[in-house]
Amino acid sequence: MILFGKQVVLHILTHYPSVALEWYLSKEVDKALFARLRAHGREHGSTIVRVDSQKAQAMARGGNHQGFLAKVHPPKSSSLATLKHMNRILVLCGLTDVGNVGALFRSVACLGFEGVIMDTQLPYEGLARTSMGALYEVPFCVCPRLLDTVQELKDAGVYCYGAHIQGDDVRQVVFKHPLAIFLGSEGMGLTPKILRKMDRIVHIGMQSKVGSLNVSVAGAIMMDRAL
Fold it and tell me: Which domain holds residue 44?
């Protein structure tokens, strides 16, 4: 699996060094960084490979690699049997934008939530890049049958909160734990069947004519309020 972009690659080097197998450079780097890459190779067995710009562009599939790429181990998914016993879970329903989902993984890691359940399998390369490597830190699983997932969480004693414009103001809600926050896609939101199974519906009050937030921003606010 190939990741690209200077900040992502350096973040992997600093925070998740055990997942890297090879480093690909298509431009010169300063001596200090090159020394770090060589030290990583001695400790973890990775190698440094020089590639030309055309090769780097092909490896990044046209993305902005900035001369930095890395071959990494793919992340390992967990299971619902494990995640349902966590105290704070984020559940993503119908989200397919890799940028939004990656940003939510970053927020989960930063805000102290413990796991992510998705109903849609997304490309790990994109998620690892947009999450700045948080995909390697946050346990996650893919459960396409969301109604069954909700029931299994509830059977495990998890309180289920759904984000919807007609819900209670999140600032006034006292969250019960263990909990799961359900987010729907920006276009469709949570389906009526999912909403009916929620223990409570919550929303973020808007203070202007702008009627909604980006789902990754809304998710971060919801998680912060639920801590």
Answer: 2-72
